[in-house]
Amino acid sequence: MVSKGRAAGSLESEVLATLWAAERPLTAGDVAVALGSDLAYNTVQTILVRLHGKGAVHRELAGRAHTYTPVLDDAGLAAQRMRAMLDRGGDHAAVLTHFLGSLTPEDESVLVDLLRRPHRKT
Amino acid sequence: MGVWVFLPLLCAGLFAVSAPALSRQLPPAAATWLLSIGSLLAAVGSTVSLTVVGFIFVAQNRQLAQSGHWSGQTLRHGGTIWTPVAVLAVVAVIALAARTALAGWRRVAALRQAYQLAAALPASGGELVVLDLPDRQALAVPGRPGRIVVSAGLLRALDAGQRRAMLAHERSHLRHRHHLHQSITGIAAAANPLLHHLPAAVGLACERWADEDAAQTCRRDTVADALTRAAAGQNRSSFLAGGTVLAAADTEVAARIGALRRPSPPVSRWHLAVLFSLLAATALATFAAAHDTEHLFELAQSAYLHGYH
């Protein structure tokens, strides 16, 4: 259930997100490398097999290894409903919490400054 | 019964004015709870104030007093509120009740729609739904279970650590039911217009809470970098970031990034104490106002029995 303090569900999301970010087929080894050293190859392999079983990823044999690509979900209808909610604004948009919250014009200008300024690395 | 009946209203006003600034000095989880529960208390307090004033005024009406078997005279002596103020209170109670009912209904409808959306999203990827769009957007859709919707553009803009931070942030929104805190505060602000800054304050506290949760899974700088990257690619005319949405709220991304670039500050007991005292005062004053009113009506009823009308 839990691996190194992270729930199986969140690992699944991270693996899927990695495949989406790659824009090319990845092997289990590629995914493990992309996710960093704290995830064992076997764990990644298990998650990929599970994702394949659920139909979230395509699998192809390339040479001796399987490569994986994310399946394009038929999210068209859901995306339309989401857009409709966001466009209605007010309460409908407010229940969908954005990563960014939202940006005011002032935020944007401050962000441009933040991006230009090299920040402290710890 | 006198000007004391306005004490809950005064406490609610003090809370409304001071809470957003005070809450910024608190850990975001504590701030979120204090702001949302505090808004609810302040809304109840101010509503009790106005209702008591309005009701004692209306109950002095001869016919109403007759049919209710209480003495209008006793109420007149006991509840010495200037008539124009009492009339204003009656009007305000009716208008605000309608406003609150409308806000509550809208919010419930919006939540129901979100739950339907969460259930309708493709389930093959578990909690995560990726939309094949170039935007940089991520959002949490509350539901059973809640879902995390991310655009492919954002996933490509972030590195693995930043993706983990972003996913942890959205997961925190769902796990701690931030939509309920925001809904309670939104409805409270409809009942008490003095609280109109509170929804934005709760919005910021929730975002900060999710940021701090994300910072448990990686370095604080990584969360800040993820936010900066996501914000850098904002395109106002894009699919998910409709103009209305960006204009609707004003959660300050820059403030969040700034907070993440610093180590998490120690808890300010002083700010916590002030907020707690304000809330306790609001609750006490509300209870006292309700209790006094009950007492006054008991007096009026016994006076009626003794032949005073």
Question: How would you explain this protein's 3D organization?
Answer:
The complex is a heterodimer of chains A (122) and B (309). Chain A has 122 residues and is α+β, with helices and mostly antiparallel strands. Helix content of chain A is 54%, strand content 16%. Chain A is built from 6 helices and 6 strands, in the order ββαβααββααβα. In chain A, the strands form 2 sheets. In chain A, strands 3-5-4 form a 3-stranded antiparallel β-sheet. A two-stranded antiparallel sheet of chain A has the order 1-2. Chain A is elongated and about 50 Å long. The model of chain A is unreliable at 1-5 and 118-122 (pLDDT under 50). Chain B is mainly α. Chain B has one domain (3-305). Chain B has a 3-stranded mixed β-sheet. In chain B, β2 and β3 form a beta hairpin. In chain B, α2 (28-58) packs across α5 (83-120) and α4 packs antiparallel against α13 (269-305). Chain B is elongated, with a radius of gyration of 24 Å. Residues 235-251 of chain B have low confidence and may be disordered. At the A-B interface, α1, α4, α5, β6 and α6 of A face α5, β1, β2, β3 and α6 of B. β6 (97-98) of chain A pairs antiparallel with β2 (138-141) of chain B, so a sheet runs across the interface.
- Write down the overall geometry of chain B: elongated
Name the helix and strand elements of chain B from N-terminus to C-terminus, one letter apiece: HHHHHEEEHHHHHHHH
Tell me the structural class of chain A. alpha+beta
**Poorly predicted sequence stretches spanning 5 or more consecutive residues of chain B:** 235-251
Placed side by side, the strands forming the largest sheet of chain A appear as 3-5-4
Q: Which two chains have the most extensive interface, and how many residues on each?
A: A-B, 62 and 86 residues
What is the alpha-carbon Rg of chain B in Å? 24 Å
Structural class of chain B: mainly alpha
What composes the largest sheet of chain B? 3 strands, mixed
% residues in beta strands of chain B: under 5%
So what's the oligomer here? heterodimer
Helix content of chain B: over 70%
Compute the number of helices of chain B. Answer: 13
Give the uncertain stretches of chain A in residue-range form. Answer: 1-5, 118-122
Instruction: Return the average pLDDT of chain A rounded to an integer.
Output: 76
**Helix-strand sequence of chain A:** EEHEHHEEHHEH
